[in-house]
């Protein structure tokens, strides 16, 4: 099936990009849309095939590809397949929806490996939306099939080093795993709110 060939190609490209990564150049994933494309008005050529392209997201997941077709006689057909996008070693971080000034967030960076052998590298957390940038690192060795979590405390202190400037009002957080064999990195943005309450007073006549 032609869709299956597309799936295998996607997996091979993801793995080959990971092989090309190094500690000097790590591709940062920052776009995590769930739906990749929806194009309901595609027309086939004379031979009945359709060529189209779309931009994928940076999310490592299993995508279900479904194609719906019909002709002028209203005959319908459906084709579907799965597309798995993964990396030998991948990193993830679960960010809060927002933080308040004065909060302390335990940023948990999770590293998962499906490599054939143990991989030694460095788990790194960088906050680049502050001056100076804040960087925390921890060396780890992850075994095949293992998932581990490294936590870094992030304190949002007014007047301190870890506080967004007056324009951004958010923290740009990059979590990465850097090794000679495989590397991965993700970037998320966490809004920071003022630590204050709004009181509304109402009076009735």
Quick overview:
With about 200 residues, the chain is mainly beta. The protein has one helix spanning about 1-20; strands spanning about 30, 60-70, 75-85, 90-95, 100, 105-115, 120-125, 135-140, 145-155, 170-180, 185-195. Strand 10 and strand 11 (about 185-195) form a beta hairpin.
Radius of gyration (Å): 23 Å
Low-confidence parts: 1-24
What's the helix count? 1
| End-to-end C-alpha gap | 75 Å
- Please state roughly what percent of the residues sit in beta strands, choosing from under 5%, 5-15%, 15-25%, 25-35%, 35-45% or over 45%: 35-45%
Approximate shape = flat
Average of per-residue pLDDT values? 80
Largest β sheet strand count, sense and barrel closure: 6 strands, mixed
The helix-strand sequence is: HEEEEEEEEEEE
Q: Quaternary status of these chains?
A: single chain
Helical fraction: under 10%
Number of strands: 11
Which class of secondary structure composition applies to the elements?
mainly beta
Polypeptide structure, described:
Mean pLDDT is 80; it is low at 1-24. Helix content is 9%, strand content 41%. The chain has one helix at 2-20; strands spanning 28-29, 62-70, 76-84, 89-93, 99-100, 104-113, 119-127, 134-142, 147-155, 170-179, 184-193. The longest helix has 19 residues, at 2-20. Strands 1, 5, 7, 8, 10 and 11 form a six-stranded mixed sheet that branches. A hairpin with a 6-residue loop joins strand 7 and strand 8. The chain has one helix and eleven strands, in the order H-E-E-E-E-E-E-E-E-E-E-E. It is mainly β.
Key attributes of the depicted protein:
205 residues; flat; 11 strands; 3-stranded antiparallel beta sheet; single chain; 6-stranded mixed beta sheet; 9% helix; disordered N terminus; mainly beta
